[in-house]
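Regression check, PXL case 277:
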Amino acid sequence: MPYKKILTIQDVSCVGQCSLTVALPILSASGTETCILPSAVLSTHTGGFKGYTFRDLTEDIPGIADHWEREGIKFDAVYSGYLGSARQIEYVKDITRRLSGENAVSIVDPAMADNGKLYVGFDEDFVQAMKSLVFSADIILPNITEACMLTGTEYRESYDKAYIDGLLDSLESAGASTVILTGVSYRPETTGVLVDENGKRSYYEHKKISKGCHGTGDVYASAFAGALLGGRTLVEAARIAADFTVLCIEKTQGDPAHWYGVKFEQALPDYIRMLGL
Ligand code: PXL
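Current build output:
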């Protein structure tokens, strides 16, 4: 099994099971050396808690990157998630350019919106800045809302295959190469993921348990990145990540007190088994 080194750049939400507190354990469990660059520290995520703290770490990023460059550190993958500002987006592009090793892959989860709405704190300028990162990446993992915002497509609650094909066409014409479009649901009882590899499309349909669980986008993207770096194909990695995410939701449903995230820790042994480790 390959031993790859990934850098993941996203915030630390101390409580809430998203971003780095999800990415680091999942990527490590995949057998991948996981380096982190925290873009901000929040007391909790912004999706439902009130009065959270936010410490912006943008100022620290250039010095950290310069140090890594002086040390000759290179990564096999750079994976970014939730970012706090347009300036951070520029830094992610710069780091990807300077610190990617040979054949490195850049993975961008444009974590900024869901269910037709931007997350708290984001605006249209941020969406514009995110476009430059997304359309220069090797692999992107938007949900339908994010794909709409990145392409100026009208968001629809219900849609058909033609709408999704049009969305993927728009992403491709804007410069996307490989797209993993999450949360594509053609039937009420199922959802799925559409993998578009330079126009070659395949759909993996799976059980839909509940709508819009917090942090599942981060769980999905991290499990996907770990499987990919562990040597799985794009389609295999997309399926493993979907099966793992469903399991995480199943382990959480039925516990209304746990509304803020999923109990992914309890499914990590299954993830490791899915990877054949
Ligand atoms: O899961 C995405 C995410 C990451 N980080 C923070 C968030 C969110 C979603 O709301 O608020 C701080």
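Comparison notes: Residues 192 and 205 are 4 Å apart (CA to CA). The radius of gyration is 17 Å. No diff flagged against the previous build.
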